[in-house]
Design a protein that fits this description.
With about 250 residues, the chain is an alpha+beta fold. The protein has six helices and seven strands. Strands 1, 2, 3, 4, 5, 6 and 7 form a seven-stranded antiparallel β-sheet that branches. A hairpin with a 3-residue loop joins strand 2 and strand 3. The chain is elongated.
Length: about 250
């Protein structure tokens, strides 16, 4: 924001765009850090869906930066860059001071938070000088992130399924992402599910959705007892991380 009695509409839009562009750039950096070398489309999508990251970057960072700039513009219009860096660094440190009580973890997390806040400030300062670039980044980066967050980027090769009334088996030469598998159990029934993986490569996992776990019956040894809710739908979600192998599941209703 510029010094003076007031600001015009163009300055307001430039201010907004630079904040959103800086947030998008910081979000992109976080995504790169999260996926590291495992840069499949599904991994990018998974990182882009992380809700805490949206709140932290597009919520807290933008709101805090806006409040700082408004206060400085109104009461300290001639504040130097060093003052802004201190204030931004404190803003990056503050959330961890509230959430973390261990001094060591607080120091590490706070320093990382302060570094991210200073990166946001540097990006914001750069974008505020380039109207076109800031507008493009402010609009395009979140649009791309939302495409990744809501899109299905699961990749499979040689995915072969075999279903019966009481079992399901799938083999795959490559599986990177997640697949929902419906379980044909009638509404109100209880079933014991037994599942197993036979893997050659990669990571894997399974989670159950739209089911009610029977109270007091904890899952153990790849077994879980579930009950279908009133929706009448029971399903599980298979996840693979550059995986190759097979998955088999059997169920028996009570």
């Amino acid at each position: 924001m510029k010094d003076g009695v007031g600001i015009g509409r163009k300055q307001i839009w430039r201010f907004i765009f630079s904040k959103l562009a800086a947030a998008g750039t910081l979000f992109t950096v976080f995504v790169i850090i999260i996926i590291q070398n495992d840069a499949g489309l599904y991994q990018i999508s998974e990182a882009a869906r992380f809700p805490y990251l949206w709140w932290l970057v597009y919520g807290y960072a933008v709101i805090y930066s806006t409040l700082v700039e408004v206060i400085l513009f109104k009461f300290f219009p001639k504040a130097k860059v060093g003052v802004r860096m201190v204030v931004y660094g404190a803003g990056g440190f503050a959330p961890f001071a509230v959430l973390i009580f261990d001094p060591t973890y607080l120091a590490i997390s706070g320093l990382i938070g302060s570094a991210c806040a200073l990166f946001f400030y540097a990006a914001d300062s750069l974008y505020s000088r380039t109207k076109i670039m800031s507008a493009v980044a402010a609009l395009c980066i979140p649009a791309v992130l939302l495409v990744f967050a809501w899109g299905d980027f699961t990749e499979t090769k040689q995915w072969r399924e075999v279903r019966t009334d009481s079992s399901y088996e799938v083999s795959f030469a490559y599986f990177n992402g997640e697949k929902a598998v419906p379980v044909p159990i009638k509404k109100g029934e209880t079933a014991l599910l037994t599942y197993s993986w036979t893997m050659k490569n990669g990571g894997y996992g399974v989670r159950f959705t739209d089911v009610l776990q029977v109270p007091g019956d904890l899952p153990a040894n790849n077994k879980i007892r579930i009950r279908v809710p009133e929706s009448g739908i029971a399903s599980l979600v298979l996840t693979g991380d550059h995986a190759e192998g097979t998955f088999r599941m059997e169920w028996k209703t009570d």
